[in-house]
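Annex B. Sample input.
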Amino acid sequence: MERMTTQQHQGDAVPEWTVGDRLRKAREVLGLDQVAFAALTGISRGTISNYERGLTNTYKTLFMRAWAMATGVSLEWLETGVAGPQPEPPPRAKKSTSELERLTRAKMSRTRHTGTTTHQ
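Annex B, continued. Sample output.
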């Protein structure tokens, strides 16, 4: 299981956040529990839990993009911990929601047509 580690830097312990730590923090800043976040993104609560606890070896691009869009956190930071150019906070408007819905429909369509999900 992936855990936050520390690194010594000039005599001070510096926390190193894992991908799971960053995903959890981004969700928590919204004030959403896993069930509400699952409803918002279309990602199953079990997948959210597994991602946040580091119980996966690969993170699907579709899910990471949906997570970034829903939280307003950069995809680069979620994946690497390095903050790139700061995007404008997403307006809690139809555009963000409709894009998440489009991504979720695309995922569901691929699942129905192939019988399985494609790995990103």
